[in-house]
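pasting Cytochrome P450 for the record, 398 residues
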Amino acid sequence: MRTVDPTTPEAMADRPRFHGDLRDNSPVAQSADGQYYYVAGYDNVRQVLEDHSHFSKNWGSQLAPMEHLVALNQDPPDFNDFKRLYNSYMSPAGVKRWSADCARIAEEVIDDFESLGSGDLQALFGKPVPAKVTARALGFPEDRVDMYRRWTDSFLDAMIRAPDVQKQVMDEMYAFFDEQFELKRQQLRDAGIETPGREHVGTVIDDSLTSLLLTSQYRGRYLTDEEVRRTIRGFFIGGVDTTGALMLNTLQHLLKRPELWEQVKANPDLVDAAIEETLRIDPPAMGMFRGVVKDVEMAGEVIPKDGRVLFSVLSANRDPNVFKDPDSFRLDRKDGNRHIAFGTGAHFCPGAWTARMEAAIALRIFIRRLPKLRLNGPVEYFPTINFLIVRHFPAAWD
Ligand code: HEM
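structre below
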């Protein structure tokens, strides 16, 4: 089997080329450090995500196996009951509850930096907007952005250097989560409620995902604190930098083609097509991991039991068998809705509709308020193997 190294400066500098080469020449390959197997190409990636008899999320979707069979780390059929807890809450209709907050947050964040005239839009806009919206969705204080920034940055750093260091960040996050759970439980107790239920969400305690999980019954019992923490962590870490990268990558594509920037300014409804095309061509989650349940043959290679697999969303979203002219950014694309930037199957991203709504609202406001935006330096990315997350976005505006 071919071995490949995604961490070389060449591979990092041109991720589409690295992933395209995998898809076209060796869709199943082993990483040079021997820790995992790559799977590339649209059909192969879908197979990893949909064939639970061979590929499992029971140990999580990062390289280092974590929390066996807890909350999000389950396969169907058991997982189907678990995700019913929040599925309709996170649906396209459900997330509309946060649309006015998204608009307010985007306006306030821009108020804070507009007068600077130039700066790093990752720090000024791409981090604080999703951090505050995610905090709102989880029922956490919006004004702790510095702390949220530290957690999400440390998560990315740990992913690059030592996946097991994530544990240290988690201990600090969990202590904060526990305080927030206790605040909501105290409000329920103060109201004399002994058996909390969904009817108390948005009435006695705030209308947030945390409130929902603390009051929901799952197979006849409340979730354990460990299950709630694990789930909230997934939503928190999953929701911030990915959505920030989506907004900044969309701006980058538009700025690099001034005619597109002008078109979108003239017709802001094109923002939706620009967001969808950015998700396809530059998926912020380039790939995730699965565990291998039993030996599996794919593309003429055998991936052995107990191995870890990294599925390449980037190679799938630019697969020429599925997308016409796959490496071009086009606002008039007809085949774009087949992209799998949010995954597919049982673990399809539950934040997909939040991310789309947030990006659509925040970018419309951004483009209206900073119409003379321009890049004034190279956009830099975190050097991770499976996320395409913007680290610096130097820009100027009038
Ligand atoms: C552009 C933004 C986003 C992208 C590209 C993205 C991408 C993804 C992908 C590809 C997965 C599937 C992982 C797998 O199968 O192993 C996923 C899962 C997940 N995402 Fe997102 N996501 C985004 C935004 C969000 C937001 C805003 C939230 C929270 C509100 C969120 C929460 C989650 C959670 C909790 C999971 C785990 C689901 C599960 O394992 O069943 N994501 N995301």
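The longest strand covers residues 287-292.
The domain at 3-396 is CATH 1.10.630.10 (Cytochrome p450).
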